[in-house]
UniProtKB/TrEMBL annotation:
Record-linked InterPro entries: Acyl_transf_3_dom, Acyltransferase_3, SGNH, SGNH_hydro_sf
Protein name: Acyltransferase
Gene Ontology CC annotations of this record: plasma membrane
Locations listed in the record: Cell membrane
Acyltransferase domain ranges (all copies): 7-333
Keyword Cell wall biogenesis/degradation in annotation: no
One Pfam family cited in the UniProt record for this chain: Acyl_transf_3
Keyword terms: Acyltransferase, Cell membrane, Membrane, Transferase, Transmembrane, Transmembrane helix
Single Gene Ontology BP annotation: lipopolysaccharide biosynthetic process
SUPFAM superfamilies, alphabetized: SGNH hydrolase (SSF52266)
Transmembrane portions of the chain: 12-37, 75-94, 106-125, 145-162, 167-187, 193-213, 225-245, 251-268, 275-293, 313-336, 348-373
Record bears the keyword Membrane: yes
SGNH domain: residues covered: 412-651
Length: 661
């Protein structure tokens, strides 16, 4: 059974896909255009739930027919884009890039792209996101994961609750619980909340709730208020598009703005409305809305490959992307999607095999071939291959949950081994993401000294006792809830276990110029250096009292831009960009922290300082590449191979801090 067609919803799909495309093209005014995905979520939740409800009421619903329709609706265009994206990747990507793409393709094949993007990219606006061709498939994974549980759940609720009012009440309760999960995740686990279904479920549940309430709500309002409410809904979506950005904590409560706006449009806008309804139901809006799904699939790979090839997306290139997206989408709709509808009368077995199993097997075969042949390295010069492999080797991926493990119960030493694999742990590495990026260095230095190390690191949580960290969020000063808690666990439970060395590393320059407080009062930038000095004195003292030698890694030079691919791109595309940092700029950035560190070494005779700049810099420059190997993964974090290479040079030219008496 099909529900009554509403062309204005297709028009709303047009709005959603276009603001997403304009956002990805960095069109001014569309900094929050990513909320188009949230518009899609609400529409999807509404339509799917309306279909299930309507079919159940007349006894025509079956789980097999539901999933048969989902395969017919999604799989043909999905696998078509996946195929051509894989073909382009095989032609354009370096071996390490192609292997990384193949991992994402493998996850995407089984609608699990969101898990891969969360783990590998780390955030929608994270490092490497702009050259990840399948990044956008995370949203389709969220939808399909939701629809693995929602139909059966809804049938159970309808069976036991029966009455529409009670059923709607339960859905609203689930919605509020899911919203709470989303808000908590947006604050505490931002990347996970952005990508994973539990933090997005409330958006689909808003749509589901509308399936049981939209008609009743519509009838309550007089005609003028209906028109005004629909226009207000559009204003909500436009406001989010104009005012949100990559810095907005999302989803959580912020996502309510575009979602409620979408709900108002679904409830109140009709095609015969004097303004908005007629626009959304117009031929242009409906036409683009009908191809919005393939348009969403096609647009991002085009942009990602342009970014990969360093083609600047100016007005004319952006316009070409839009035109190409529309042409490819129309061709996909006419040549792929519409013919696939012939399978609607086929059984679930035939549809599943033809529409999913066979293309999935081809996709898996392609991915396994890439892995088996190491990305087909003979396609490019070995120098390019070597550089790309370094750039894509990230410490957070290498070290797994040893980085970003549970705050109060980090993984144990048997799960997080660095250095020599032997009985007894000699070295403990603690700190934030910058400590994590030095795990490769500690691995090499510990191995050379015949020692075993244990790393437990947490982003934004350098080891400093007795203080709270604050940061600015949406113009407000917000306390980092886990900072003191994590460091109390380290001080009381981990450090006293008896290590020979405790290595403390982190973005100390960032903390020195940040916001710290030791008395619970509102922090200030002016007071932070003094607070940090007192905290570092107490921290080093705590390490010494545990019987360990305290070691502080001063930190690697930081750039004002992402330099990870700078030398690689110079070689690959014949560029001549400056990839190094003047030594003077490095010293100016580190001046305050360097002075504080000098005072610590004067205070504590046993304190050892590892200064990577001793091998990364000369008198004039600090380098982003040494011996033909790129060192960075972004503007301030080292890549894993770079970190290890620095250790080799440091041990040779400066000395191994773990090898002296």
């Amino acid at each position: 059974m099909s529900i009554a067609y509403r062309p204005e919803i297709d028009g709303l799909r047009c709005v959603a896909v276009m603001i997403v495309i304009f956002n990805h093209l960095s069109v001014p005014g569309f900094g929050g255009g990513y909320v188009g995905v949230d518009v899609f979520f609400v529409i999807s939740g509404y339509l799917i739930t309306e279909i299930i409800k309507s079919e159940k009421q007349i006894g025509a619903f079956s789980i097999s027919s539901f999933y048969r329709r989902r395969i017919i609706r999604l799989a043909p265009a999905y696998f078509t884009v996946l195929f051509f994206t894989g073909l382009l990747s095989a032609l354009l990507m370096l071996p390490a890039e192609l292997e990384q793409f193949s991992k994402s393709a493998l996850f995407s094949t089984f609608f699990a792209a969101n898990f891969y993007m969360w783990h590998a990219v780390g955030g929608y606006f994270g490092t490497g996101a702009d050259t990840t061709p399948l990044l956008h498939l995370w949203s389709l994974a969220v939808e399909e994961q939701f629809y693995l549980v929602w139909p059966a759940s809804l049938l159970i609720l309808m069976h036991f609750l029966g009455a529409k009012g009670r059923l709607l009440g339960v859905i609203l309760v689930l919605l509020l619980l899911a919203l709470a999960v989303s808000e908590y995740g947006a604050i505490h686990y931002r990347a996970a909340a952005y990508y994973l279904m539990p933090a997005r479920a409330f958006e689909l549940l808003i749509g589901a709730a509308l399936a049981f309430s939209a008609k009743s709500i519509y009838k309550w309002f007089p005609r003028p208020l209906q028109v005004l409410s629909g226009f207000l809904g559009l204003c909500f979506v436009v406001y989010a598009c104009l005012s949100f950005s990559g810095a907005t904590w999302f989803p959580g409560l912020h996502a309510l703005v575009p979602c409620l706006g979408t709900a108002l449009i679904i409830v109140f806008v009709r095609q015969d409305d004097p303004l908005l309804g007629r626009v959304l139901a117009s031929r242009v809006f409906v036409g683009i809305g009908k191809i919005s799904y393939p348009a969403y699939l096609w647009h991002w790979p085009l942009i990602a490959f342009l970014n990969l090839c360093l083609i600047e997306i100016n007005f004319f290139v952006g316009a070409a992307v839009v035109v190409a997206t529309m042409l490819l989408s129309a061709a996909t709709y006419v040549g792929i999607e519409k013919p696939a509808r012939r399978f609607r009368k086929s059984g679930i077995g035939k549809v599943a095999v033809t529409g999913f199993v066979m293309p999935a097997m081809l996709s898996v075969l392609f991915c396994l071939s890439v892995f088996f042949f190491n990305g087909f390295p003979s396609r490019f010069d070995e120098e390019l291959n070597r550089r790309a492999a370094a750039v894509l080797a990230h410490a957070d991926l290498e070290r797994g949950r040893c980085n970003e493990g549970p705050v109060a119960a980090p993984l144990g030493p048997d799960q997080c081994v660095l250095g020599k694999k032997k009985q007894g742990v000699d070295i403990l590495l603690v700190g934030d993401s910058h400590a994590n990026h030095f795990s490769g260095m500690i691995d090499i230095l510990a191995s050379k000294a015949g020692l075993r190390a244990y790393d437990i690191t947490q982003s934004n949580t350098v080891f400093m006792v007795g203080v709270d960290r604050y940061y600015e969020r949406d113009g407000e000063i917000v306390k980092h809830d886990n900072f003191r808690a994590r460091n109390e666990v380290l001080k009381k439970d981990i450090i006293p276990e008896g290590y020979d060395y405790v290595v403390m590393a982190g973005s100390y320059v960032g903390y020195y110029n940040g916001l710290l407080s030791n008395d619970g009062n509102a922090p200030s930038h002016a007071e932070t250096p003094a607070v940090m000095k007192a905290a570092m004195l107490a921290t080093v003292q705590a390490v010494i009292e545990s019987g360990a030698v305290p070691i502080i890694v001063k930190g690697a030079p930081t750039f004002d831009r992402n330099v990870s691919r700078c030398t690689l791109n110079n070689l690959r595309f014949g560029k001549n960009e400056e990839c190094n940092l003047p030594r003077k700029e490095y010293e100016e950035k580190f001046a305050g922290w360097s002075a504080l560190l000098d005072s610590l070494t004067e205070e504590f005779e046993s304190l050892v300082v590892i200064d990577p700049a001793k091998v990364m810099c000369d008198q004039s420059w600090c380098y982003s590449e040494l011996d033909g190997l790129p060192l960075y993964k972004d503007s301030n974090h080292l890549n894993y191979k770079g970190s290890m290479h620095i250790a080799e040079i440091y041990a040779r030219e400066v000395g191994n801090p773990f090898s002296h008496d």
